[in-house]
Structures
1.
Amino acid sequence: MASVTLEHVYKRFGDLVAVKDQSLEIKDKEFVVLVGPSGCGKSTTLRMIAGLEEISEGDIKIGDNIVNDVAPKDRDIAMVFQNYALYPHMNVYDNMAFGLKLRKFPKDEIERRVQEAADILGIEQLLERKPKQLSGGQRQRVALGRAIVREPQVFLMDEPLSNLDAKLRVQMRTELSKLHDELQTTMIYVTHDQTEAMTMGDRIVVLKDGVIQQVDDPLSLYNHPNNMFVGGFIGSPA
Ligand code: ADP
Ligand code: MG
């Protein structure tokens, strides 16, 4: 079953074509990584899937439904950004509960979801703390927790690890892969880091100038790049 489908999607900003004729079928529970150099259209693609950016042309489907005109909050997705801002005056519990409160979830359901997410992320001991009392890695977990409590069918992540130091970044890669196994959801993950893409993705989508260059599993991509750009990009150090 297809989880997210792009059909001939374009995004124009004035004269600039940021996303050009992208077609892609992401399977249910797949971990797909969008990778490419800065400015190639990764964030724009993700933001269109999230509904944060209007589509200029084409269709995006979640499941069988075309969601072009569906508001972000009504799509069965949650997004984690690079610059996740936690609410500084709220403790960890309230940061994670906030979105559910807005959506008028019952209190016991909120409690159940926050506890469960905290458990999965190993932050049960931190629920009373304020963001400034947390390390970078702990803050990133809380940001993930805010998405997990939504229990979405699809997770979108835009360079969620790029603000962490190198050691923590490697550790979080493994944790995110585990999280994907545990949650059994579709993940669409954006990075400009080839190593991150190659170690995390079931399939990798390589972008250049808004155009999909190749969609393949890591090994095929490595062994059989479609063109010089893909070969050079995948083969070069991050
Ligand atoms: P990436 O995430 O791969 O670095 P983006 O999707 O952010 O790339 O940007 C793709 C292209 O679209 C870039 O040239 C960028 O400058 C441009 N762009 C992105 N958002 C806007 C916007 N709101 N207005 C004008 N141009 C934009
Ligand atoms: Mg980006």
2.
Amino acid sequence: MTMARVLAIESSCDETACAVVDGLRVRSSVVASQIEVHAPFGGVVPELASRHHLDSLAPVIRAAIEQAGLEPTKLGAQLDALAVTDSPGLVGALLVGVQAARGLALATGLPLFGVHHMEGHLFSAFIADDSTASEPEPFAPHLALLVSGGHTELVEVHGLGRYELLGATRDDAAGEAFDKVAKLLGLSYPGGPIIDRLAAEGDPSAVAFPRAMLRSKDFDFSFAGLKTAVAVHLEREGQPRSRAELADLCASFQAAVVDVLVAKTCAARRARGCERVHVVGGVAANAGLRARFDDAAAREGFRLVTAPLRYCGDNAAMIAAAAAAHVAEGRAPRVVVQSSVALDE
Ligand code: KG4
Ligand code: ZN
């Protein structure tokens, strides 16, 4: 089998998603966000996430099937496999998706593949919408910077299923730092996109925030100190008194995060001799980060692939594409909730 048609479910955090792909081609991708549910709490409330996945999942699956032009009663014949994110994530949230996928597998007789969420993010840089004319590029070796709300990792991808963890955050993930600093500034959840927009108006050199571990020889990150530095600054100076001051703070904070992410990724690339760098995960949507990586790629002459904006955040198309690649390779189906199988050293 060269190209598998797969339906996948993703429910690891606060997006309920379902998608259908033909290999790397996305036939449909439906995402129901729970942002409005969690925003009043300033972060994801696990119990609420599970309950809302329960409510949203059936209509989201139905919409993905319909948009892909499939017959709900003929899925067994129209698909090659089913997939579901089985780790890592909020356990209750994962279980909703996994149990729905098991039900579908029972009803259709299709094999069910568990996908590691971070392997899914790796595939977000390879998938292409049905409407794009050119053929998607096949999954190939590269250096990946995975930056999301829960993870900040540098992974050398040697091939399908061969992922070498070069470094990771020792405390907060980059997205988590954005969200926590937004909360300190009284901004809404998730803070990443809000800080990103404000930063575009501000002066990144207004406040000198620390660049942790910039000169360490390893490829690890740390963002907890930066968050504390923002808190200390606010204690000393008070909350920003104008939009311009707020924008300056956001720009200065964002520059500190971006500096470290870009410098460490480039150092890992040089050390490993990778000619290709991918930036994936929710934080890969950040305009400042994308611009700085564009500059670095032009300066150092490597090929840069940033995930398309609509596939940076959590979605099921990337999960389906990862599963489709494994199906094509003949991997045996299995689902293992909460066990890190894909990205560990
Ligand atoms: O990949 P994702 O959707 O979910 C996880 O797997 O965690 O990432 C969500 C994270 C949140 O922390 C959010 O604030 C951040 O990605 N994010 C951004 C931007 N858009 C989303 N951070 C910075 N700039 C953005 N434009
Ligand atoms: Zn994610």
